[in-house]
Amino acid sequence: MRFKIDIEEIKGIIDGPYRILTISPVIDELKKIAKKKTKESKNAKIVLKLIKSKRIEVLKSKGKYTDDVILNLVDKNTIVATNDKKLRKKLKRLGTKTIYLRAKKYLAIS
């Protein structure tokens, strides 16, 4: 993978119980990327395997744009993991926390 972050690191930054979920448009994007012959395709394949091996629940959701689907699903109890700056700003305005990669080395929450 591009950055050596273990999904288990989430335990260190979230207090209390939590569930890790993703949405079907994310899976669709990863599958499209995985079919290409690029560096990103290798990472996409690894992430798809991780989602399967960790039994991460995939919420079936309709919508053309992944960001819009996320913004329509979140509430104050949701924490979204993303490095997308525009999405993080929109989520912050909604009062939703985000987990993001800081200094390409560790996870942070805001």
Explain the overall architecture:
- The protein is an alpha/beta fold and 110 residues long.
- It has four helices and five strands.
- Strands 3-4-5 form a three-stranded mixed β-sheet, covered by helices on one side. A two-stranded parallel ribbon has the order 1-2.
- Strand 4 (97-102) and strand 5 form a beta hairpin.
- Helix 1 crosses helix 2 (39-53).
- The longest helix has 15 residues, at 39-53.
Describe the structure in brief.
The chain has helices spanning 24-35, 39-53, 66-73, 85-93, and strands at 21-23, 57-59, 79-81, 97-102, 106-109.
Distance between the termini: 24 Å
What is the total tally of β strands?
A: 5
Widest sheet: strand ordering: 3-4-5
Helix proportion of residues, in percent? 40-55%
Q: Tally the helices: what do you get?
A: 4
- Main sheet record: 3 strands, mixed
Find the structural class using helix and strand composition.
alpha/beta
User: Using only CA atoms, what is the Rg?
Assistant: 14 Å
Mean pLDDT over all positions: 89
Name the shape in a single word: globular
The number of domains is 2
Q: Which band does the percent of strand residues land in?
A: 15-25%
What low-confidence regions span 5 or more consecutive residues with pLDDT below 50? none
Element-by-element helix/strand order: EHHEHEHEE
